[in-house]
Amino acid sequence: MFDSDRQSADITLCIFPHLREFIAVDARETRPNGPVVLTLSISNILGEDFYSTVERDFSKLIRRKDIGFLELMGIPQQVEAVVRSSSLQRIIAELGINVTADSDDANGTVGVLFFAGSLLEFEYSQLSDATVKLFGDKLPTEMLNQLNEQLSELIGKERSALQMATRQDLSGLISGSSAAYVTIWENSGN
Known about the structure:
By secondary structure, the chain is α+β, with helices and mostly antiparallel strands. The chain has helices at residues 42-45, 48-62, 69-73, 75-94, 124-135, 141-175, and strands at residues 11-15, 21-26, 36-41, 110-114. Helix 2 packs antiparallel against helix 4 (75-94) and helix 5 packs across helix 6 (141-175).
């Protein structure tokens, strides 16, 4: 995953699935004031503009006159693409990036790191090694240290949120308040 032979993205989004904040690393060489590491709130992204855009695009998807049954079954994937595209557009706008066709920023690349699974188990030294491989040539040492501190803090919050979500899921299963179905014990009659 942290292959140093791969070209790193101009902008990297560090997403924590259970948190309402994420980190954006803007390491573009063309950025006027140099690279920046920002912690952003999802509430800034999911504003009225976002919802209006998603609603408008969703309406276009389902109201097409030429839609057939096969296309109708593909709507969930299309809605996912609309939400992903709208989210990315809002994040880019939040970063103050101009993506008009004649802009230098229109040709940049965006990478997304989801901090889940084994990434949540990283020790600080592993995290530091990974960020050096990803950003070492694009970010100054002080900024890498800042990024590592922010990532480490959010990893801790994500771990806690994940544990809480797991406890709530188990509690819901046991109390019957969850819609999920689970067999705790089954006798096959043999």
